[in-house]
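Renewal narrative, Specific Aim 1. Our central claim is that a sequence can be written position by position from structural information alone. The example that follows is taken directly from our test logs and has not been curated for this report. It begins with the structure tokens describing the chain, in the order in which they were read.
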């Protein structure tokens, strides 16, 4: 896997259409620019088709949802599928909001390349109970037993949607397909100190997919790169909480010049999940 990740970043200027959380648009756009992608954030239904046609990949983040935004998301998903463009769905806030859960389930039927969410959100998508409230994951959902339970449930879901990679993010990350399951162990708690980190991960995955990297490798590469950037930036915390956000951005823009993939911490859980 490390060999595959060597040449992912910097990206070669793929145009990424992002319908994303209004609270973090600037953060997401800058993150894409830092790694060599180009963001465009059209949310007018009249523009969606034209933008999809010229985009390399599409990100649909269901955070900060409105009726108008939902209509744009559904239209974009249909058009991305028709145009065979990679599609990433970020399942923000589906734990306690049934309308968002229904939307993600509907999008899955259109054909999604990657679905991501935090561990609590992905437990809800997989039909498991969660202790979470709001849009944040909780530690009660992240013990080894709960992670293994989630891995099994996502593997079953992936059998229904074999074209889709499922990513659950947390203290440890799960990447699950119909035939693979990996547990990733990079990252630091300080990445939870500023808003939008999950939104950035979704955008990075779309960026890598837009560079024609296979979905499993794109997902592992994007989340791992971001987590390693967080690890490198963690020393800035001594300067204050805002410093960790700034330094994480700095690392996104330059860490690819180093052999960051050698810092990858990954366990193959495929055989355990099959049992």
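The sequence written for that structure reads:
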């Amino acid at each position: 896997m490390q060999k595959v990740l060597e040449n992912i970043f910097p990206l070669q200027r793929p145009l990424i259409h992002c319908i994303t959380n209004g609270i973090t648009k600037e953060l997401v756009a800058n993150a894409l620019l830092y790694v060599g992608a180009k963001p465009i954030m059209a949310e007018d239904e009249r523009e969606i088709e034209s933008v999809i046609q010229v985009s390399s990949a599409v990100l649909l983040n269901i955070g900060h949802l409105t009726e108008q935004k939902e209509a744009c998301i559904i239209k974009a998903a249909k058009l991305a599928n028709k145009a065979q463009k990679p599609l990433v769905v970020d399942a923000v806030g589906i734990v306690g909001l049934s309308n968002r859960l229904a939307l993600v389930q509907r999008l899955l039927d259109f054909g999604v390349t990657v679905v991501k969410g935090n561990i609590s959100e992905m437990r809800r998508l997989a039909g498991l109970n969660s202790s979470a409230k709001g849009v944040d994951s909780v530690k009660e959902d992240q013990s080894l037993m709960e992670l293994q339970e989630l891995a099994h449930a996502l593997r079953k879901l992936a059998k229904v949607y074999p074209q889709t990679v499922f990513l659950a993010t947390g203290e440890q990350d799960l990447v699950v397909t119909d035939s693979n399951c990996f547990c990733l162990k990079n990252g630091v708690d300080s990445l939870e100190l500023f808003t939008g980190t999950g939104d950035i991960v979704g955008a990075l995955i779309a960026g890598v997919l837009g560079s024609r990297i296979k979905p499993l490798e794109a997902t592992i590469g994007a989340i791992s790169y971001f987590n390693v950037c967080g690890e490198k930036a963690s020393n800035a915390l001594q300067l204050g909480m805002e410093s960790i956000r700034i330094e994480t951005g700095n690392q996104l823009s330059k860490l690819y010049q180093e052999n960051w993939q050698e810092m990858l911490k990954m366990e193959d859980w495929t055989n355990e999940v099959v049992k």
